Structure formats: structure tokens, C-alpha cells
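Study both lines:
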Amino acid sequence: QVQLVESGGGLVQPGGSLRLSCAASGFTFSDYAMAWFRQAPGTEREFVANVRWNGNNTYYGNSVKGRFTISKDKVKNTVYLQMNSLKPEDTAVYYCNAHLLLPATVYDYWGQGTQVTVSS
């Protein structure tokens, strides 16, 4: 069955770095666009970053542009989110997403989330 398993979250001080990983299985990873979203308590889920199916095009939310980097490893079936210069407002649960849009069908999968807390 489809699985997206996030890891790498934790507590970090402002200005620090973390790298999140999302290990994918149960579907053809190379066909899917991959993305990271986040959700802080009392807020809506927010787009963070995504990478196209071929790994060649990336897009970022304005709040993370220049600080976060998404990458896709098609050998390891894993997507990463390198987070630098972290701020307290980056505190949230981070979710991995796999997305495939076909003419008649949309495939959309989510991981269980990993907590990132930025605090001194």
C-alpha cells in the first residue's frame, strides 16, 4: 500500500537548520510531483515547497523562499526538505505530499506529519 513516512523533525534554536526526509513506497515515485506542506495550531495547512515529477523544477512559498530547499532522490524514493535560518514562525507539523494529475484521475497521498519546533 502507499506509504509516505516523514522523519527529521525536532526542536531547534532560531537560526538553526533541520533536514526533513519523506520515504515513499507503494507507488511509482518517479511519476509523482512531491511537496511539503505545514500546519501550525489554529491555522490552515500552508504550502511550503514542491518539486516536479522529473525533479527539475522547484517552487516555494514566499515565507520560506531562499531558506528552504526541496529535492527528490529517485534512487532512494525519498524527498527532502533542507531548512536553514529557521525562525519561530516555522514551527508547525510538516507533511509530505505526493501528487499525480492525469486527464481523468487525481492521485493525492499524504504522510502522517513530523513536528518542527523552533524555539530558544
Notes: The two ends are 40 Å apart (CA to CA). The first strand starts at residue 3 and ends at 7.
